[in-house]
Specification:
elongated; alpha+beta; two-stranded antiparallel ribbon; binds zinc ion; 80 residues; single chain
């Protein structure tokens, strides 16, 4: 499996895009836009800013999705 650790974040306030290195062992829960200075927060409490605003989700989410795909299950919990 290939894990991408770079994600391009698009600021919802000003549209500024920046490619950032993602942490592989933790969720990044805030990000300051280099364009307008807005502090981005994840759209949902458990996600990271890369999952919410980046073009590539964080490594943990990539791993979870790969595991689900391997298991052939839609959600990892339903067995279907
Ligand atoms: Zn911005």
């Amino acid at each position: 499996m290939t894990t991408n650790t770079l994600s391009t974040i698009t600021c919802p306030s000003c549209g500024h895009r920046a490619t950032e290195q993602m942490p592989t062992d933790s969720f990044q829960s805030s990000y300051e836009c280099k364009g307008c200075g807005a502090v981005l927060r994840p759209k949902t409490g458990r996600d990271c800013v890369f999952c919410s605003y980046g073009d590539i989700p964080c490594p943990q989410t990539q791993a979870e999705r790969a595991a689900r795909a391997e298991a052939g299950s839609c959600c990892g919990g339903c067995g279907g």
